[in-house]
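Hey, sorry to bother you again with one of my protein questions. There's a protein on my desk that I can't quite get my head around. No rush at all, and the record is pasted right below.
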Amino acid sequence: RLVRSGVLRVGAKILTQGLELMPKDGEPASPLADEALDSWLALRRNQVRPVPWDAKLGARPGSAVAFPLRSIEADGGAVKKVLLFVERVYPSTWMEYDRPDGKKVHRSELAETRAARAWEQARAAALERLADTLARERATQGIDDGAAEARARAELGRRGLFERRTRRAARFRVSGVRSTQKGIGLERSTGSALLTVYDLDEDAAARLATSEGATFEVTDVVARLEKKEGGLELIASRRSRWRRVTPSVLARANLEPKPTPRRLATVRDLADDDVSDDDVEHRDGVSVRRVRFGE
């Protein structure tokens, strides 16, 4: 896209960060190995920016440059660093994966607590039944401990009771920052995205739960298309690093957030919007509209 628009052209200087050395045959290779000669450098949209013609070539000292959120593309790959202002903090959820049925199940904190308790009870009951069965087979068939353990593992795995895999996910509605200098970015949109953070521990989840209204410098996130709304979604993981940016630091850099203003809306206001047939129920001859809250 940058090439077609003329931003990237022969002789232009670009800033790159977070690039990947891609192997020709799909197998990673050491940079000093002979196979590395057939590798190629992947330049993705979110990792490349044009720079002024007089910019100095070579490695840039210091940390990575934070790219504006408004310039991040959903299909542009990973983002090395970005400045994000937290507008909304949504309740944490849990995702259960690697289930016997192959499905991924998302649950709230309360539902996850109940599901974990039910799984532990079912596992304990299954282990008790297996212990009785294997004890009888040891006495009658003479099976050894290794065979009994392998059978128990297989039976628990078949029932989905050998191991339960879950991930905590925290979600935020975020926007970017804009320049406060006259004539530079005052009228521009700062951009917005849904930020999903996986694998949080209890302390990190508690800290981020109170982060509404704060600005963060976040590294190593992945951009993708949000499945539900079709907008931009950023994915952060354990590899990502967070640094809180105070308002005074933003002011010295001539930057400021521009959050989406909140307004009080009644149920009637929400129901006056366009409503699809799926949102209308018919009860005893009366049409009832379902109003869904949240973004």
Notes: The longest helix spans residues 109-141. Residues 134 and 149 are 9 Å apart (CA to CA).
